[in-house]
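User: I need a structural model of Nodulation protein S (NodS) from Paraburkholderia gardini for a docking pre-check later this week. Nothing fancy, just the predicted structure tokens so I can convert them on my end. Input:
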Amino acid sequence: MASPATYFDALYLHSDDPWSVRTRWYERRKRQLTMASLPRERYRCAFEPGCSNGELSALLARRCDALLVVDLSESAIELARARLADMPTVHVEQRSVPREWPDREFDLIVLGEIAYYFDAGELETLARKIRATLSSDGTLIACHWRHRYDEALQTAEAAHASLHALCAMPRIVHHEERDLILDVWTTHGRSVAEEEGIA
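Assistant: Understood. Predicted structure tokens for Nodulation protein S (NodS):
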């Protein structure tokens, strides 16, 4: 495989939507599952690495006071900036994570179809960065495709198992189906009902 940046930029040369995230029902449904799984209605400051062309980012922005989205690919960043141009609370940057992880606190971190591109050492770094920057009332959500993907360095199941072990936070949502796996962890472990004081 070429360098990650070269590989992803090559994909965007052929299409501004290489995974058909705008049009495929799987992708649209996955975004809705992700949003429905977030335990809080609003977040102060969220981070989405691997934002691609910004389709999920646009939904996240509606529930966040501030949102930082990044991608390795320059082409993806240009598309995300165009998609999110009318959303002043969203900041778009080109970064390579986990190495270029932002030095600020977030109460929401969203990992969508990104963790299985990392090897074991990078996942350890990723988990360390998450724990260092996630607030004391923070949420981590991860959602990944479960079918074979040649460019992935590990399976979705392995990536989620590593995140669960390395981040060492209470998991409040675990959802599996044939196509995807979705997990939500929080630093405090409270359910939605407990957050609202009704449980």
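Before docking, keep this in mind: Helices lie at 4-14, 25-37, 55-61, 74-83, 120-133, 156-167, 192-195.
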